[in-house]
Amino acid sequence: MIVDDNSPDHTSDKVLILQQEFKNRLFLEKREKKSGLGTAYVHGFKWALDRKYEYIFEMDADFSHNPNDLERLYDACHFGSADMAIGSRYVTGVNVVNWPLNRVLMSYFASVYVRMITGMKIHDATAGFICYSRQVLESINFDKIRFVGYAFQIEMKYRTFVKNFQIVEVPIIFTDRTKGQSKMSNSIIKEAVFGVISLRIRKFLKQL
Question: What global pTM score does this model have?
Fold first, then answer.
């Protein structure tokens, strides 16, 4: 399932061609405007829940996430104890290829910051390569999710954490994209920094 927010690189056109080869296996949801990373994922989650999938994955489509690792995340949930399996860049050190040092440091210490504020024992809080069991997504009220940028990834993990689901990190190697540009911006960083604090406050006030 590919959710495309009217991408300027004509992603949807390429998917339509590939659908001829992978009938009833490749799906496309095209939205008319960019509404944020978080809303795109929620759109996909709802689509999957409506179709009774037991395990729902999220991943980047630029091969930063190795498709071969999907099976390892699945195994952690289906055969292991995980309700959420995270493809983690930092659980066994720093496993990032082709990122500039400043980006690695920002990402790594962002997760340190999240651990300090939230109490989650997760090494890669901003990871976007995840397997969810159906029960996790069914337990989350998507209408209450506040964040649409990379803080969305933190919020989903925190909501899973406070509901006492089992979270497991599976080590992966993350390789930076070879084409395209990062969507990281000052507003996204600001959302993440202050968003983590607001999540903790809302948990304390029982407003999550």
Answer: 0.91
